[in-house]
Design a protein that fits this description.
By secondary structure, this protein is α/β, with parallel strands linked by helices. The chain contains 15 helices and 17 strands.
């Protein structure tokens, strides 16, 4: 009987969480590189280039791929003949591993877990508890799957129960078309079919850890109904034209993974969970011989890409000299390099500002004619000004937008993905502009930040308001001062009729 020590389990999970924070898996790099090479929309191609450059930078610097370092998703499969020595519960051991990983001095990871989901929503401070699943399986070893799942893609998870005669592909395609770009495409779709509601969602989450092999499947063709379904969904979703970051383009998904399970005769449960461009997972096996060892990927796995930061279509924008004429001249899809003062503020900061305005209180920061960045950065280490600082999903700020723009005179917002109808109306009403940075390029974006000073709401931690000084920060105009959105016009221009076998 193999005896697996608690210390080896904790050390292995902790190391795995660190490992996946800065290393993409080689299969993901190959798939993203191939998508970048075949992309025809220049804006989407540039977004994928930033993702790949960011990925290589993180691998070299061992810093997080994305500022949202995710919840720790840990699945433990314990062999029936294995002996797992624990001093407490399995949850306790997994939480200790998570705590160590997320509070590591040399590469601190952002704590995003709140302990009271419908109350104070106080942050646990160490990203515990982990999201643990456990299963007893045949064998004498312990297998562990470790993933870090960001909120942007997790928030787009969907579930339904179809009639047994309904089309799974139809529901998935129709659903993906409504998700917007908050899940940071191009990524992976995990689909679970069958079982019960909880089983289907569990299957979908497990499917996201399966190897990316769509290129091989396309080459050889399907061997069964599951592979036929994968190919159909892959083709039809990419034909939607959503593209990288929702800008419109050839590739929206890199792969479609499907797992199924027997179900009730009257039911067809279907779970859908997307993975973003910060796809992070690894698995290992413990046999009692010691902790797991993780081999860094070869840097030659990444393509050599030189970002053209100041190409013919790129325009520099000074955030300290904004005027209405400049804002009115911006066009959806245009590439900008931002320099000057940029404030941060996301969900909690916006709520607090609105509460203060409603009470007639003066805000601690003057936003008139200024720009705000929806971001919650990772803590800095060493001589860094700021840690990885990619954008968060902007639709969460939509309900605050009209009041903030009207009351403060704010003119520019920077975030990720599309804005909803309420925000589009507010942007046009106040003649503001909305820009997007690339989700999944957090470390790259952080290098454009030259100064960072917390100036308000410091008790909110990573959601405090900072004053940043940026230089040549790459963004794309998503919504102009008339309310026109690239997330509407881009996918519409690239939508096509799917080619099905």
């Amino acid at each position: 009987m193999n005896v697996i020590r608690e210390a080896d389990l904790i050390d292995s999970i902790s190391e795995a969480l660190q490992y996946i924070s800065y290393y993409h898996s080689p299969d993901f790099i190959r798939a993203m590189s191939a998508a970048w090479e075949r992309e025809e929309n220049p804006g989407a191609k540039q977004a994928m280039a930033q993702i790949l450059v960011n990925s290589r930078m993180c691998a070299m610097g061992r810093r997080p791929i994305c500022q949202d370092t995710g919840t720790a998703n840990i699945a433990v499969y314990i062999g029936a003949q294995a002996r797992l020595e624990l001093s407490g519960s399995l949850q306790d051991a997994v939480d200790e591993a998570t705590r160590r990983a997320y509070k590591l001095d040399t590469n601190p990871l952002r704590a995003s877990v709140v302990v009271d989901p419908f109350g104070t929503r106080k942050n646990s401070g160490d990203n515990t508890p982990a999201m643990l699943t456990c299963e007893i399986v045949a064998g004498d070893k312990v297998e562990v799957h470790v993933a870090a799942k960001g909120g942007g893609s997790e928030n787009k998870a969907k579930f339904t129960v179809l009639n047994p005669s309904a089309s799974v592909a139809d529901w998935v395609v129709q659903t993906v078309e409504t998700l917007g770009a908050g899940w940071c495409p191009p990524g992976i779709l995990g689909i679970g079919v069958g079982g019960t509601a909880d089983k289907a969602m569990g299957l979908a989450k497990k499917a996201l850890n399966d190897p990316i092999d769509m290129a091989e499947l396309l080459r050889r063709g399907p061997a069964n109904r599951t592979e036929e379904l994968r190919l159909e969904i892959y083709e039809r979703v990419n034909a939607l034209g959503i593209g990288a970051q929702g800008l419109g383009g050839v590739t929206t998904v890199l792969d479609v993974k499907v797992r199924s399970f027997p179900t009730h005769a009257a039911s067809l449960p279907v779970g859908l969970i997307p993975n973003c461009a910060a796809t992070r997972h690894v698995h290992f096996t413990l046999d009692g011989s010691g902790p797991a060892k993780f081999t860094p990927p070869d840097l030659t796995d990444w393509p050599e890409i030189l970002l053209d930061k100041a190409g013919a279509d790129t325009r520099r924008l000074d955030l300290d000299t904004l005027d209405q004429a400049t804002l009115d001249s911006l066009e959806p899809g245009q590439t900008l390099l931002l320099s000057g003062t940029l404030y941060t503020g996301r969900d909690a900061a916006h709520k607090r500002m609105v509460d203060m305005l409603n009470k007639g209180e003066e805000l601690p920061v003057d936003l008139k004619g200024k720009a705000i960045y929806y971001v919650g950065p990772v803590d800095a280490v060493g001589d860094e000004v700021i840690g990885p600082a990619g954008p968060t999903t902007s639709t969460r700020m939509d309900k605050f937008t009209d009041q903030i723009l009207g009351a403060t005179g704010l003119k520019v917002m920077v975030g990720k993905a599309e804005r909803g109808p309420v925000a589009l109306e507010a942007i046009a009403k106040h003649k503001a502009a909305y820009l997007i940075a690339v989700g999944g390029a957090a470390y790259l974006v952080s290098k454009a930040i030259k100064e960072a000073e917390p100036i308000a709401f410091q008790d909110l931690g990573m959601e405090a308001i900072y004053r940043l000084k940026v230089q040549d920060m790459p963004v794309t105009v998503a919504v102009d001062s008339k309310g026109n959105s690239i997330h509407i016009s881009g996918p519409a221009a690239w939508k096509r009729v799917p080619i099905l076998a």
